[in-house]
Amino acid sequence: MNKNAKRIFASAALIGMISAGTAFAAENVDTTAEIDGIAIKPSAQPTSQEINGAVVKGVEVKEINGVKMIPLRLVGEGLGYSVNWNDENRSIELIKGAQYIKMAIDKDSYAFSRRAGEALGAAPTLVDDSVTYVPLSFITEIIGGYYNIEADGTYKIVNPSIVSVTSVNENGSLTVSDSYLGEVIVNIGKETRIFAGDKEVSASEIKPDMVLGIEYGDAMTASLPPQTTAERIIIENLPTETPNDGEEAEFGFSGTVTEIEDGMITVGEPRKDAGSVRLVITDDTVITRGKNGEKASADEIKVGSKISGTHAEAVTMSIPPQTVAIRINID
To answer: How many CB atoms lie within 10 A of CB 129?
Structure first.
């Protein structure tokens, strides 16, 4: 599975959470200082997998057999994953919501969601019979995050908050919907870096209804809605990458729509021995109708409709499994 597919998957797994986002309770904020008369608090270090996004600072990297490695439990739990060790087969499972990652000591392979194993780049290593180390590339290639080297030589590892853009404001700030904080005003400063894939772009590329990955600044106001300045913004659903020749990026489905809720549709497979799948419809989903493939809209899909199409490679381990719809044809 390519990195872009994993980023799409991570975004899709949170779209439902964003649409039903929990309101941020201002009275629960512990303020520590004021800037221009506005109370601020340091960004909370997430401790629950329900919290959207996370930053882990002060990570020390070891070089093992020529490969830069990071402590898996420290980083995984810091990013909101539950990390489970199986002593019998010396394997590790990371679970965060619908995301599931599994690997084993001394085996250069990992399983993401329900897909077959892929090479990790270097085998997980147990140091001092107590701490599992994995390649630093685990952050960029599997988690879909990024890292920075700090002045003291330690690493800051970021799993950006996945949000949807409600509006682009006249002063250049963004109003976004965050599944944990609710509505947030995000200012774009001179130091804010904005990316679409591997390309750095300007703030003018950001439009309403886009899905973004945002690294919030260290300070956030205790106002309602809270305000902060973005360190980095990643445009998640702007097309930036096409599959390489021979690479399978889409998987087929067909069945009858059994449920429609929060922009997602549940499709039952026609075979009795198969289950259902939940499809996330995004702005990039191509929807057509009939044998001639006439252009259609999501509103035309109803419970009882027979549909077919393709979905992204990444599929969650939830019941029913969830994935991003790439093409849908209403039969």
So the answer is: 5
Cβ atoms of residues 62 and 55 within 8 Å: no
Question: What size, in residues, is the chain?
Answer: 331
In angstroms, the CA 21 to CA 182 distance is 5
Indicate whether 122 and 271 sit together in one domain: no
Look at 158-172, 193-207, 220-234, 308-322 and tell me which has the smallest mean pLDDT.
Answer: 308-322
For residue 12, what are the domain limits? 3-51+160-235
In a domain, 242, yes or no: no
pLDDT tens column, 94-142: 988 767 889 999 999 887 765 556 788 899 999 988 899 999 988 988 8
Q: What is the DSSP string of 257-325?
A: EEEEETTEEEEE-SSTT--EEEEE--TT-EEEETTTTEE--GGG--TT-EEEEEEES---SSSS-EEEE
Identify whether 245 is part of a domain: no
Residues 222-258, buried b or exposed e (16+ Cβ, 10 A)?
beebbbbbbbbbbbbbbeeeeeeeeeebeeebebbbe
18 near 177, Cβ under 8 Å?
A: yes
Distance CA 295, CA 331 (A): 13
Q: Which DSSP category does 143 fall into?
A: I
Alpha carbon distance 137, 123 (integer Å): 12
Please write down the long-range contacts of 149-152, taking CB distance under 8 Å and 24 or more positions apart: 150/57, 150/58
- Cα 115 from Cα 111, distance rounded (Å): 6
Question: Contact, 67 vs 73, CB < 8 A?
Answer: no
